[in-house]
Structures are given as C-alpha cells and as structure tokens.
Amino acid sequence: MSTTTREWHLAARPHGEPTPEDFRLVEVPVPEPGEGQVVVRMVAMSVDPYMRGRMRSGPSYAPPWEVGAVMSGGAVGRVVASRAPDLPEGTLVLTDAAWREIAVLDAGAVRRLPSPTDVPPSWFLGVLGMPGLTAYAGLFRVAAFTPGDDVLVSGAAGAVGSLAGQFARLRGAGSVVGSAGSPEKVAWLTGELGFTTAFDYHSGVAEGVAAAAPDGVDVFFDNVGGAHLEAAIGALRVHGRAALCGSISGYNAVEPPPGPRNMSLMVGKRLTLRGFLVGDHTDLRAEFTDTVSGWLRSGDLVVRETEYQGIENAVPAFLDLMRGVNTGKMVVRLTSDPD
Amino acid sequence: MSTTTREWHLAARPHGEPTPEDFRLVEVPVPEPGEGQVVVRMVAMSVDPYMRGRMRSGPSYAPPWEVGAVMSGGAVGRVVASRAPDLPEGTLVLTDAAWREIAVLDAGAVRRLPSPTDVPPSWFLGVLGMPGLTAYAGLFRVAAFTPGDDVLVSGAAGAVGSLAGQFARLRGAGSVVGSAGSPEKVAWLTGELGFTTAFDYHSGVAEGVAAAAPDGVDVFFDNVGGAHLEAAIGALRVHGRAALCGSISGYNAVEPPPGPRNMSLMVGKRLTLRGFLVGDHTDLRAEFTDTVSGWLRSGDLVVRETEYQGIENAVPAFLDLMRGVNTGKMVVRLTSDPD
Fold this sequence. Notes:
2 copies of one chain form a homodimer. By secondary structure, chain A is of the alpha/beta class. Chain A has 2 domains: 152 residues, Quinone Oxidoreductase, Chain A, domain 1, CATH 3.90.180.10; 151 residues, 3-Layer(aba) Sandwich (Rossmann fold), CATH 3.40.50. Helix content of chain A is 24%, strand content 26%. In chain A, strands 3, 4, 5, 6, 7, 14 and 15 form a 7-stranded mixed sheet that branches. Chain A is globular, with a radius of gyration of 20 Å. In chain A, 51% of the residues are buried. At the A-B interface, helix 7 and strand 13 of A face helix 7 and strand 13 of B. Chains A, B: This is Enoyl reductase (ER) domain-containing protein. Chains A, B: Keywords: Oxidoreductase.
C-alpha cells in the first residue's frame, strides 16, 4: 500500500470563473487506520456543478470548502485495509471524501455498495446516485409530472438533464424537448436518448424554445437558470410547473444576473416554480433505485459518462464541466477496479 | 324608472398609465326586459387592479374590454323590475355587469345575495366577495400557511392584502409584516389591523423588508411584484412559499420590467413561488364564507372601504386605485340602498 496519497486543496476563492491556480495538488502521508476505521482507495470521483458554490465562503446548503484544506465530494472506493468488522477488505463503498486517492475514514462515513455490482461502480455517482435521484425527485415529485405532459429540460445533455428527459419519456411524456450546448449533444439527445426534439442554445434560448415547443410545455426541469428560466416561464402553459434544480449559467457571475422579466405571467397562467435539493427527497431512494435499475436492465435507459483519468485531472474535469465540455455524467477515474 | 342609464365605454387602449381620455361616459336607453330577464339598478360597483389587464388586447385570463363598448366588472345591485320568477323585485344580486347604473340581464347572469343582509351590500365586492376569497385561497391553499408562520404581505393596505394579513393573524401567524404606500396606511396596519409591523415602501423595498423581517419570513403574499418579489425571495426562509396574486407595480409598464436577480436562491432555500387566480378556488367558497362571516360577527376582522360616489366617479376611482389612493377596498356607490 502507498504510504502517501495525493489530494486537491482549495488554494483560493475564485472571483468569476475558477482557474487552475485556485487549486493545489498536494502529496500527504496516509495515516494508520484506528479502531473502527477503514482505508479506502478511490475508484472514481464525482465533479458536479454544485461544487462551484462550495468554493464560496458564507452560508449555503453545502458547507464551503476551506482555503488551504482538502476539498470533499462524492466518490466510489474500495476498502483496502480495515479495522471495522462490517466493512472487510474489498468492500465497495460510497463516500463524500474524494478529491484524494486514498482516505482513512470512520466506518460511519461510508455507505456500503453491492459488490460485485452488475453496473460499473462509477454509476453510483450518476444514474444510480445523487444525479439520478435528483432527476427522479425533481421530475416526479417537485414538478409533479404526469403522463402526457410536455416537458422541457435545460442542460439536457448533462448528468441530471439527460436522466430527467429520459425519465419523462419512459413515463409517457407527450413530448420531451432538450436544450444543450453543441450540435453533437443535440444529435445525441434526439438520437440515442429519444428526446422528441432539441436545440443548441447558442443560437438563442428564446428562439430555441419557441421553435422547439411552439405550443408550450407543461413541465420545465431547469439546470441552467437565467435566459432559460425566462424562456420557460413564457412557454409554460396554464398550471405549468417548473422544478428548479440549478442555475449553472449564473454560478460564475460576479454581479447579480438579470432576472426573468416575465414573472407577471405566473399569475394569469397559475405557474408554480419550485426550487429543490436532492437531500430533502432521500425517502424516494428505494423507489428510485428499483425503478431505475429496472430501466437499466431492460436497456430502456441510456447512460453515458465523460471520464477523465487520474487525480491530476480532477481539476481540469471540474473546470471543463463548468464550461459544458461533458456529455452525460463527468467522472474522474482514479484507479482501475476489477468490477 | 329611468328610461336611460349612464355607462362607461372604453374609448382607447392606454399606453402606460391610463388617463381619463381612455374612457367615455355614455347615456343609453334602458331596453324593456324580455322573458326571464331582470332590470338591475346597481347599488355599488367594484374597481380592481386586474381590470388594467382588461384594457389590453390579446389573450389574458379575463377577456379584454372592447374599444367602443361598455366595460364590465363586479357590482351589487337590486332587482327593480322582473320577468324572472325566481328573482322578484327587491332581490339583491351580484353581477359582472357594472360600469353602468342600470342593466337588463338574464336571470342566469346574476347571483342572488341574502337580503336583507346583515352586512353592507358592498362587502360582497370585498371581504365577502372576490377579494376576500382571493386572500383566503392564496394564503391558506396556495401558500399553504400554517400557524406559527411569519408572513409578509405586499400591498397590505389594499382590498386583498388587508385581508390576507388579518387572516394570517387570526389563524395564528408568528408575525405579520405589511408593506404599504403611505405613513397613514402603515399606521392603520399596525394599529387597527393588528399587523406586527409595517413599512412604507417609498423608503426602499429591500430596506423595508430587511428592517421589518430581519430573520426572514415563511410566507409571502404578493400583490405588487417587481422589487417586492425580489426582496421577498431574499427574505424567505428554507422551504418558504409565495402566493403570487398580482403585480400592480408592473401593470402600466411599457417595457418588460426587470426581474428578480436572486432567482438562484430558490434552489438552496427550496422556495416555492406559485401564481394563482381566484377562479380556480371557488370550491373553497362555502368554507370561506363561514369562516369570514364568523370573524366579522365576532369583530375580529376589520373592514375598511374607500368609497367614491356616483357613476361619473367610477373612472376617477379606478385611476386612483391604480395610484394606490385607496385604503381597503375601493368601491363606487351608485345608489343609496335601504339595506
């Protein structure tokens, strides 16, 4: 076993778009595990848009990363040494301890995953993990989707959006419209993923929505905010509902971004806009896991990852995620794993 | 009986703030009632902010008034001649046929009111009518108020706002904060109406909210929109809810008004913003009438009207309403009535 590991520290709080200089890769010794602890070698770690918020100081729903300290985030890892009887060597676990290759963790800080899994371990960071439950809870509970609804998804080629759109299709949406950031993503949405139609928002968000959904939509699943939210408020029909999952368009903003100028439409159309966090909806996890596992087994649900290799590429992966380089879930592979 | 009546016609669609020149008072003959019709002499008519929308062409939730034709709106009137057996002379009725002194109406176009009433007939245009049900449905259903909630009301000295705030108090709000447009209104809210605190928004909306509710609120009842909505999104706590009833600050806008710049807060705070129209909630009418009648009988609920006199003052009343001159419900008294 290595006696050192590499880990990413936050070097500075960015003003605007983060840069590589805001992070520092540090080599540190791996301590000996104490009683009740395990040594976990990370197989894959997650980079997610919400992490941009953790780079800020001040109160937020996830605690801020501290400058000069290791960052944290979701990862799947393998127990390589154990002083916890319930977590023998070889156990596959989910942790929030990544941005490092090896971590020594209390048994209570990890969640045991099925092993051997019938899916790649990294899928517990995506379709079977937090992004999957986010899409599921947002669409079915927060937006109160019902079969026949016409659905608009922003950030539709991302980890959450690509699932939300497919979940809508699989549950009988009237139509599913996706907004994405490149012609290749648009082609993927309308091809392999089975979206009804899709558009590249670089050609205009309002124009894209108007062309793709000229008769409006019933549900909006928003990962982007800003102009997408304004266009969606315009497109939502009477009694339309929006689940507000994120607003990546504004995460690097230095000044408050303009708000939707058409909020007054909410009264006449009796619209509901509802922000949500997946952490409020963990009671859906069993139902979600059953349902999505079934769709995976039947082949109805398409999963794609954009995978970067090696801890040294975790920050490039995060920076590229914030620029929309990924298609599907962005993950960083840290070690090969026999599963 | 008069053989002529006066009625207001829409003369032009305003651009921006309506002016007296957009309306015309016309004297017309009163036709003879046909079989199944009644002649109704209006006792009091309503002017309401939503009517600004009816001055526009194009689709909206209430049909637009036509240029050159009589306008319509809520009124309480007395049957003065009848060819409808169920509506004998003397019956007090609610109609949508005002902006006129006398109307000949099909029996199906009026709703019978209790007569003699134990409340002034004009209250069926306010506390016991559409504005009352709006406040009731908005607070208790749309915003899902629960006892203990801290509540913020914009337009709190208006017909709907003054009721929404009192309903919250009567159902056990933790605190009720009101925003209004003059020191006199503020004094009325914190005095007779029992609001916990209130502020004059002319001194700054964001500042007023921050000073009046430094620890935030759980529910926002919005009649104003614009800066009030932005400030409320900032002030709402985790799982906060807003009932969007109207946005009078933008009704005369020629250009789209700026939207709230802090929509991204909706995710982390899991806020719900919900627009509504009273017409979707008429199933609450019996419960509403029972509850509010009880509060009126016990003297717990304070009702104030701003009353203008005579059909010739209906347009001045409407224009003053749009400028916030009224305290409580704005009504136009058209005839004295023995009740």
